[in-house]
């Protein structure tokens, strides 16, 4: 007995939910596969004796769950089962078994713990009462705007040109930006290899996501232009300064070209600058070029220390109220205690000192990678936290990742960052910050040895 399409009278109430659940069961059973085209709303409604509104509601629910996707002018297609986008990093239950190059984080040493312990000790004697008693965001966080402006200026922005929201790090800012720029069903475009949570988050929000062709700098302007001509693009999501999986940095000219396309088609821009001022000599942020349409976010988490989960989201003035409202209903406000620590450090110079330390530490680690991988082509950025290794020789991406793990090293597969199933740019992201100097060298030597050898399929059975 087939599951799909259901027969008239087989659906339970509410019919839209039953119809959606039936399609998911058909996908899980293999009756429907990724890429299969679904009937139009009107045809399916006629066949099942339902209203068009009921079928539309079922399709909307399936889009929200990420099971199907609608493409303007082409129809509605199955995307796959209910599983979320796979994460690039190994689970906590496994990471002690590996030299972990899979998770992106800054270098963390005992001095960082000592800095935080000292900050907490000082707070024990002069903690402002508003930090723990204020319940309104404007009351609790207003006094930190000066420090926020100082940090954003160091990132290359003019804080007076945009609205400002303080957040609990980059993930919070990214979610709020997406919720503000688009509604369910809207199309977001990005690099075809992009942030690993972007696809899953877009699905949860009911947004359509499309990867665009990339080159050595990032999104190809002609591909962006073509997407805008084919469909109504609501926003483009970019990581222009080393943060993207391939460690690419976009030139000022390329940024200007993309801004020109965005203005011509009235597309908003979301700029993920999570590393902030970590990269020396970088071009100005896109938000500095196009403040009237850019949502920009950064934080201290990546460039100072992992536990300092405090960041900033700037937005065009026209979107200030909408952004604040979405932040209120999802996060309420940034944690005032973390804001107090972060802003004290910005004002007294601790943040700048820790930033320079991190730049130096990552610079040394990048040099270690350059020495060990000296004759192996790979991509990196100045003081970056990771490198991108295109799959060498006869290897496949899956085989290289599996062999690395068999040798005790976890790396992130490029497929974890793919916005579609047909990206042909295979590679692995190798993160440099999580391990000690000794395990970094040992792990990179494993990578070097594998890259210079041919795959041995028999090893996969061990």
User: What is the distance, rounded to the nearest whole angstrom, between the alpha carbons of the first and last residues?
Assistant: 40 Å
Largest sheet: 7 strands, mixed
Low-confidence stretches: 81-85, 458-462
- Name the strands of the widest sheet in spatial order: 4-10-9-8-7-5-6
State the total count of DSSP E strands.
14
Number of helices: 17
Quick check: average pLDDT? 90
Q: Percent helix among the residues?
A: 40-55%
What class, by secondary structure content?
alpha/beta
Question: Which term fits the overall shape?
Answer: globular
Q: How much β-strand is present in the residues?
A: 5-15%
- CA radius of gyration is 24 Å
Structure description:
The strands form four sheets. This protein has a seven-stranded mixed beta sheet with strand order 4-10-9-8-7-5-6, sandwiched between helices. A three-stranded antiparallel beta sheet has the order 11-14-13, covered by helices on one side. Strands 1-2 form a two-stranded antiparallel ribbon. With 462 residues, the chain is of the alpha/beta class. The longest helix has 23 residues, at 350-372. The chain has helices spanning 15-28, 41-48, 52-65, 110-126, 129-133, 137-141, 145-154, 170-181, 198-204, 221-230, 252-264, 286-289, 320-330, 336-348, 350-372, 397-406, 437-451; strands spanning 68-71, 75-78, 99-100, 163-167, 187-191, 208-212, 233-238, 268-272, 294-299, 311-315, 386-390, 409-410, 412-413, 427-431. Helix content is 41%, strand content 13%. The chain contains 17 helices and 14 strands. The chain is globular and about 70 Å long.
């Amino acid at each position: 007995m087939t599951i799909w399409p259901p027969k008239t009278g087989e659906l339970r109430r509410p019919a839209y939910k039953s119809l959606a659940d039936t399609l998911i069961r058909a996908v899980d059973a293999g009756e429907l596969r990724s890429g299969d085209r679904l009937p139009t709303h009107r045809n399916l409604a006629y066949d099942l004796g339902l209203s068009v509104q009921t079928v539309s509601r079922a399709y909307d629910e399936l889009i929200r769950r990420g099971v199907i996707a609608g493409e303007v002018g082409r129809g509605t297609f199955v995307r796959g089962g209910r599983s979320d986008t796979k994460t690039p990093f190994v689970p906590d239950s496994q990471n002690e078994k590996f030299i972990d190059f899979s998770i992106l984080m800054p270098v963390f040493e005992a001095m960082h713990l000592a800095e935080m312990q000292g900050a907490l000790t000082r707070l024990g004697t002069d903690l402002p009462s508003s930090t723990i008693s204020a319940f309104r965001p404007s009351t609790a966080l207003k006094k930190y705007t000066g420090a926020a402006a100082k940090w954003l200026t160091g990132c290359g922005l003019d804080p007076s040109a945009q609205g400002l929201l303080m957040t609990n790090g980059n993930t919070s800012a990214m979610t709020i930006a997406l919720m503000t720029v688009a509604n369910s069903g809207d199309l977001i475009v990005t690099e075809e290899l992009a942030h690993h949570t972007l696809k899953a988050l877009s699905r949860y929000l009911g947004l359509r996501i499309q990867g665009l062709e990339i080159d050595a700098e990032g999104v190809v302007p002609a591909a962006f232009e073509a997407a805008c001509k084919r469909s109504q693009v609501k926003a483009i999501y970019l990581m222009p300064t080393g943060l993207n999986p391939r460690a690419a940095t976009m030139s000022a000219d390329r940024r200007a070209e993309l801004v020109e396309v965005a203005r011509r088609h009235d597309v908003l821009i979301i700029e993920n600058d999570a590393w902030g001022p970590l990269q020396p000599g970088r071009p100005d942020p896109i938000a500095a070029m196009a403040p009237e349409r850019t949502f920009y976010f950064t934080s201290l988490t990546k460039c100072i220390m992992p536990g300092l989960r405090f960041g900033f989201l700037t937005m065009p003035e026209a979107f200030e109220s909408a952004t604040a409202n979405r932040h209120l209903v999802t996060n309420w406000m940034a944690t005032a205690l973390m804001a107090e620590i972060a802003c004290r450090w910005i004002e007294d110079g601790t943040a700048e000192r820790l930033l320079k330390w991190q730049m130096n530490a990552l610079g040394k680690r990048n040099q270690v990678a350059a020495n060990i991988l000296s004759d192996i082509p790979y991509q990196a950025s100045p003081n970056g936290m990771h490198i991108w290794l295109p799959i060498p020789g006869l290897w496949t991406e899956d085989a290289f990742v599996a062999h690395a793990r068999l040798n005790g090293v976890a790396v992130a597969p490029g497929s974890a960052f793919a916005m579609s199933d047909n990206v042909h740019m295979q590679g692995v992201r190798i993160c440099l910050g999580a391990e000690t100097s000794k395990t970094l060298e040992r792990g990179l030597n494993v990578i070097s040895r594998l890259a210079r050898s041919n795959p041995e399929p028999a090893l996969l059975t061990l």
